[in-house]
Sequence to fold (70 residues):
Amino acid sequence: MQNTTQITPSEWIDQCAARLHERWKTVDQAQLEDVALDIYLDDRLRHMPPADAAVAWLSPLSGPPRDSHA
Fold:
């Protein structure tokens, strides 16, 4: 696990935005950085490694897997 105290806020936001990009490839990078900044401003999420924070933030949007045969 990455120690989040060893990276700058800018690096944290860049890494979080990169993880968000893995989920939303068509979203503009500047928008992803804005979302990553919002995530960074959340005290609970900011203390997580950036990729973990992005996953935690995305989890309510992901929902349970859909049955492709339904």
